[in-house]
Structures are given as C-alpha cells and as structure tokens.
C-alpha cells in the first residue's frame, strides 16, 4: 500500500512556534524590557513555522481524501434528520452498553496518541489505499485555552500542531483522535468526528471503544437537551449510568461555568460557529446533531459495513 509521510516538523518544537511568534514581542517587552529581542525571537519562530507549513503542504499534495458522500452516503451538506424517538432509543442502548463494558483503565497520553493514530491511519487507508503517516506529538498547554475556554483540544490545520487542553477521562481517546484527524488533513469538524468514531469503534480495545460510545452518548444528550448545563446534568443523572461514567459525563457536559468564563465562552462559541458556517460547515451542530445523525444514517443504510460490528454499532441495516 502507498505510504505518504507528512513531516509535521512544527509539532516537535518544545513550544508552539506560532504562539511563540505571536507572543514573543509582548513577553520580551514585559520581562526583559527589550523589544528587539522579542522581534528577533518572533522572526525566528515564524520562519521555522512557515518552513514547516510549506513542507507539510508539499507532502499533502499527493494525499487522496475521502469523498464522504460517496463512501458513507452522507456529508456536511447532505445530512438526514434523525427522529427524536430514535435519539431517545439510542441513548438507552448507549447507557446500557457503557454500564456493561466500563473500564477504569487509563492509557498514558503519549502512548494513547500513538495507539489511536494507528487505528485512524488504517481507517483512512481502508478507504483511500494510502497510509498517511503523521506526527503523534501532543501538547498539554496552549494559549488557545484562553481564547476558546470551551474547547477540549485544538489543532492548527496548517502546521498540524495539536494541544489537549484538559483531562477528559474516558473521553480522552476520542478528543485526541479527533484532533489527529485534523492533522491528517480532515479539517471539517463532522469529518473529524466520524473518522475518530470509526477509528475507535474498530480498534478492539475496550478503552477506545468505551470512548467512542461515551462521545456518542454525550453528543446525543447535547442534541436532546441543548447547550444547557443544568438540563444536561439532570438528564445524565436520570439516565441510569453507573457512577464513574455519570460523574465524568457531568464533568464534561454538565458543568456550569463562572460568569466571566461563561460570557467569554458564549462569545467565542458564536464566533466559532460563524467561522464554521463561512467555511462550508453547518456550525457547531456538526459536533453533535450532525455527527449522531450521520452515524444513525450510516448504520441503517447501504454503507453500514463501514461501521465495524460490535458494541459501537447501535443500529441494524434497514432492508432496501
């Protein structure tokens, strides 16, 4: 099988080159009272960043990307409407399966990134006939946590730089593989959500399959209850989940932010939703309503075999 390797040189830097380049003049001025030093550091960091971006762009020129509509029968602009009754039924199935297969095992983040990247690479290769090899480096800090306080992870689609902004427990495998899908060139959020799910679903690893189910459940509850932490909290606590799963789901989706961070988060969500719409996406709903409807249609349609058999497949194929 053909292999393409994306260098992702910027991801091996001890700090984000883009963030260093943007922040260097200000930090230098505040700490050293020297603007020239900051400007020199900025120039060096941005030059390295630009070189990495160009190298990656050249390497990506030979990549064949997945045509989602052809391969899966749905895409960003061709999404079905999932009935509320089916959403409710799926929630019950996901709760039952998560309770039955819960594992407290945690995989160290560097190893987890390597492991999920293998499965993601194989899912994509199974469709395109190309193994796209990319970095598995993950940052634990980023200035983006200030700009996007609601985000769990971020990815620079130009350099492939990825940061995971907080511990998400059982959800972490999905958060990481979602960002790694961006690194491989799938910058639309719906595409990254779907590829991440398929990678985890077919892994055969209980920790990874659990993350796929937990993400799917969380997104269904968000769709049903809206962006209301109190409503999500109440729904999660009434769902019948075992305590560790309930606690982590409430922590992820049911936390009420303080007034300041809540206001910042709401404002940035509106801007991010607008950015998604301007770039040909449906907005933030692609993360949850679109994602869950996509999987529902995929599992019931003629392309159902794209979802590996096992606990991560909820629906059966509908006869033609």
Tell me about this structure.
This protein is mainly α and 320 residues long. It folds into two domains: 59 residues, no CATH class; 239 residues, no CATH class. It contains 13 helices and four strands. Strands 1-2 form a two-stranded parallel sheet. A two-stranded antiparallel sheet has the order 3-4. The longest helix has 26 residues. It is globular and about 65 Å long.
Q: What fraction strand?
A: under 5%
Write down the oligomeric state.
single chain
Instruction: Please give the order of strands in the largest beta sheet.
Output: 1-2
The total of beta strands comes to 4
| Largest sheet composition | 2 strands, parallel
Overall shape? globular
Which regions contain 5 or more consecutive residues with pLDDT less than 50?
Answer: none
Q: What's the number of domains?
A: 2
Helix content: 55-70%
Notable characteristics:
single chain; 320 residues; mainly alpha; 2 domains; two-stranded parallel sheet; two-stranded antiparallel sheet; globular
């Amino acid at each position: 099988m053909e292999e393409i390797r994306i260098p992702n040189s910027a991801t091996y830097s001890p700090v984000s080159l883009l963030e260093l380049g943007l922040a260097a003049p200000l930090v230098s001025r505040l700490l050293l009272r020297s603007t020239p030093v900051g400007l020199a550091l900025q120039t060096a960091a941005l030059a390295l960043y630009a070189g990495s971006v160009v190298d990656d762009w050249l390497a990506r020129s030979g990549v064949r990307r997945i045509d989602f509509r052809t391969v899966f029968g749905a895409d960003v602009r061709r999404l079905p409407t999932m009935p509320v009754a089916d959403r409710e039924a799926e929630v019950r199935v996901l709760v039952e399966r998560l309770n039955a297969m819960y594992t407290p095992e945690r995989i160290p983040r560097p190893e987890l990134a390597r492991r999920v990247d293998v499965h993601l690479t194989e899912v994509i290769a199974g469709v395109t006939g190309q193994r796209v090899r990319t970095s598995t480096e993950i940052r634990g800090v980023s200035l983006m946590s200030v700009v996007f306080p609601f985000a769990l992870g971020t990815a620079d689609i130009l350099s492939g730089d990825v940061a995971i902004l907080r511990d998400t427990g059982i959800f972490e495998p999905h958060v990481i593989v979602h960002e790694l899908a961006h690194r491989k060139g799938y910058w639309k959020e719906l595409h990254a959500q779907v590829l991440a799910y398929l990678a985890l679903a077919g892994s055969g690893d209980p920790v990874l399959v659990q993350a796929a189910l937990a993400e799917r459940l969380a997104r269904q509850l968000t769709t049903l209850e809206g962006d209301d932490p109190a409503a999500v909290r109440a729904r999660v606590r009434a769902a019948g989940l075992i305590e560790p799963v309930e606690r982590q789901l409430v922590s992820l989706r049911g936390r009420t932010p303080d007034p300041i961070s809540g206001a910042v988060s709401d404002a940035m969500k509106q801007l991010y939703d607008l950015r998604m719409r301007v770039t040909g996406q449906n907005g933030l709903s692609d993360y949850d309503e679109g994602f869950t409807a996509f999987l529902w249609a995929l599992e019931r349609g003629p392309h159902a075999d794209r979802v590996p058999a096992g606990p991560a497949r909820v629906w059966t194929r509908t006869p033609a």
